[in-house]
Amino acid sequence: RLVKIFAAMGDSDIAAMEAAVKQQGEKVRSIKEEMKANPGSHSKEELDAEVAKLMELKSKLPAPAKTEKPKEAKAKPEQEEAAEFLVDGKPVFDDDGNRITSKGAYKKYLTKKEKDAKRAEYKAAEKKDTGNAATAEVEDFSKMEPISFLKDEPEKKYGYLMRTMSDQNTGRSFVHVSNLSAKHEGKEVWVRCRVHNTRAKGNNCFLVLRQSGSTLQGALFKNDETPKEMIKFAGSLAKETVVDVKGLIVKADVKSCTQTDCELSVQRLYVVAKAEVGLPLQIDDASRSEAEIAESERKLAAGEVDGAYVRVGTDTRLDNRVIDMRVPAQNAIFRISSAVCHYFRTALLEKGFVEIHTPKIIAGASEGGAEVFRLKYMENTRFEQPGCLAQSPQLYKQMCIMGDLERVFEVGPVFRAENSHTGRHLTEFTGLDFEMEIKESYREALEVTDEFMVKIFEGIRKNFQHELKIISQQYPFEPMAYNVGPNLRLMYPEGIAMLREAGVKNEDGSELSDLQDISTQQERKLGELVRNKYGTDFYVLEKFPMEVRPFYTMPCKDDPRYSNSYDVFMRGQEIMSGAQRVHDVDLLVEQCKAKGVDPAQLKHYVDAFRFGAFPHAGGGIGLERVVMLYLGLDNVRKTSLFPRDPTRLTP
Asked: CB 494: neighbour CB atoms within 10 A?
């Protein structure tokens, strides 16, 4: 209809015709934009019809009439070109209906058309290569149909596996990332790991695959076996996604991964469990050392860089402990923690100890005092009675000795209602306790302590070098100094004398007394003095004042102001408190009363000594504190799986 109108109008109304062409071009452009935003808004046939209409209008548009210009008013070359630029005697327009007015603009237009045509041709060929045009059109890979991998390898080499429901029987043998190296060159392997990072560009993609604290580079390059869509799929994977990867081990120099001499040429890539985008903390941020962060902050302050590294706070880590556990150093710390328990248990079992498991809900305080979590046992029933959480297995360990188990130990939770907001206190920790008959002296128990502690130290040093290296990269520390044979033992008065000689005084400025308890700061100072004088971080302090020990501690025969007790120290901090226990029932009742403990509240415990009691001694160490001090860490929360302190009860 418009064409007929233009024909009737004649050459005199070119401006109106050009306006109509522009209007139709805008309509075409609008349809294209709507189709891009909402693919179902218009059909391709509808768009083609409107484009044909536009082209017909353009073809009917006559060339503008030339006008004579006064000879004295000579136009500039670019003005002349703009006014008269024609192709085959007619004006030309771009795909949106805008008139092209110069040779340069027309050349750009033709170049763009050529590139668009090549791009369309490439995409068509790419769809043919994949053999699955439907998948090639999927922008969101998560909408792909899940792949069944129950027995034989699927035809499709990448995608999302069906949910694992114990119905698979593929016969695959998975290799741990930490065991892979250049010596496996040419070997096909399966690994199950996390996607630590991805880097896709053009026709290749590099993955950093992580399993526990070990990382391996995976590589994909477009070829007949690896279509472009597989590379796009790999590049789209969110960090922490769990994947099954099959590939060929090839030699490579990879400095950014723990497996530095090889990489995995990826042949198959399947998602086992997709991770949500937007981690509460980034693994890389949480893996940096304090020195790296401080240096980046210095550079920022000096104007050398635009931004500093993120410092991940303790609360952020603990609120998201499951993610924080994936940080290589943190993961290694918990493996060291496991090793401490293993070597403690092994050492005592080899010496004839019996492992026991004592109650953690009891009727009275284990050791007296106010640091007890009290509760109503069987609340709102006729069985209701006051109870509390055990401060230690102390009383039950002794009762087991009276039950002729001779030598016992336990690894279990200990509860202390201490309102201490420090880097070394928890309200719940794991206690490694032991108790044993003695024939003549409490020093028999100290000999056992020496043996199992050295076994712990040596076991970690010899068998956990990989974990120690990972930890030291983020938290640098000096190795523990200790003796493989008998370790240093000091009498309590000797320790006080060393502090006095170094000029150490109490907080109020008073001189240290032989019979006072020493503070945490004084303990640390004594540790420094011992290290400088004796060259060890591990030692024992014996014969503590009776005043500062619990009611079940045996007094020293030579001087009842002191006791047959001891503390064990690492790097100047106490890790174990122990002693010879009172086995005489009359003395036990006497000391209960002297310490303000009602013997009637401990009737079952006291009665255990009425029918023949062996002399015995023992002690207990805190797992989290031992690991913290061995690794030279600054906070016990780093070594507690899910810490409990005065302000934290979750997760």
From this structure: 13
